[in-house]
Amino acid sequence: IRDLVRSRGLGDVYKRQVLIEHLLNRRFSEAGLAPGASRVMYAQAVSNRTVRLRIPAPYRGFVTRFADIVNAIEGSYYYGTPSQATLSRLAETLASGSPKEKYKASVKLESVGVSAIAYLQKASGDDWTQLYSGQALSYLNSPLGRERIISAAESDNEEIRFEAVRFLGRLSGRGAIQALKTKVFDPSSRISIEAIDALVSYGDDYAVKIRLGGYDVVAIKGMEPGLVVRTKGRPFVTVTGVGTPLEGTVEVAVGPIGLGSTEENQVGIINGLGPDANTIVVEATMDNILATLAKFNASFEATRKIIESLEDAGNIPYSVTWLD
């Protein structure tokens, strides 16, 4: 990181770089280390313009956040972290400042380390306070951080909900996963998409994603039945409540693909015309139909029209959310 603080003389600049080295190594020297492991140097002042940095484990993949910490960190060789009065003022700003001021205060407190947890916990305010204090507490491994992020994800403010859902994607635990599931059907397209992508990132135990030529199919486990269809950008179809049967008699034709009810709770899917047509019979559930359409290499446009026809006919016994 170059030129973190401008100064009148190169000597003063180098002193600042050496101080940054000292403060960061003191702050992160034991971050993520197993008991008995040797300390790691996270900062080294190599010139009057450059500090060479190693990213601590909690910030890998979140370089921008770590850069904010580097720029926010304060202290001295002799007196350590900022005073209690300074920490109290930062907590007050986190509780009552503007959103921009709240963010800066939360990062300042986070840069102090575990001794700032009590000040972050005491900060109470609006949903921005919940979000920013929750992020800082999470980076400091406080369980309260997850609780505050989950609370922020229920905000009426779309921007706060989006940032909270995006942050939930990096947290572990059943509470975070359940909170993400509730956001799959969020009225905001970008929040719904963020929640779906986060669940997919947790692995096949929670969500399975099949990437096709022109779109994606996602199946999310452990949820009430529903369907989310994104029609713009990279299209996708997300189905929840896997295994929920369709209702009524199915009869759909889209180009060379046809769907028709056979025996009870089964549907035949035909691809092609005449003697060369290929037919597969499956249980009449949306996930089975989507999987079969994928085998037939059906286009997204054909899949979309089939879903629309099933919805219009009342065959889908749950809501379909259409995203731009």
> How many helix segments?
12
The main pleated sheet reads as: 5 strands, mixed
Strand fraction? 15-25%
Question: Could you tell me how far the N terminus lies from the C terminus, measured between alpha carbons in angstroms?
Answer: 40 Å
Query: Globular, elongated, flat, extended or rod-shaped: what is the shape?
Result: elongated
Order of helices and strands: HEEHHHHHHHHHEEEEEEEEHHE
Low-pLDDT residue intervals, each spanning 5 or more residues: 1-10
Number-wise, the strands total: 11
Strand order of the biggest β-sheet: 3-4-6-5-11
What gyration radius follows from the Cα positions, in whole Å? 26 Å
Helix content: 40-55%
Q: Care to describe what's here?
A:
The structure is a single chain. The chain is 44% helix and 16% strand. With 324 residues, it is an alpha+beta fold. The strands form three sheets. A five-stranded mixed β-sheet has the order 3-4-6-5-11, with helices on both faces. The protein has a four-stranded antiparallel β-sheet with strand order 7-8-9-10, with helices on one face. Strands 1-2 form a two-stranded antiparallel sheet. A hairpin with a 4-residue loop joins strand 3 (207-211) and strand 4. The longest helix is centred in the N-terminal third of the chain and has 19 residues, at 10-28. It is elongated, with a radius of gyration of 26 Å. The two termini are 40 Å apart.
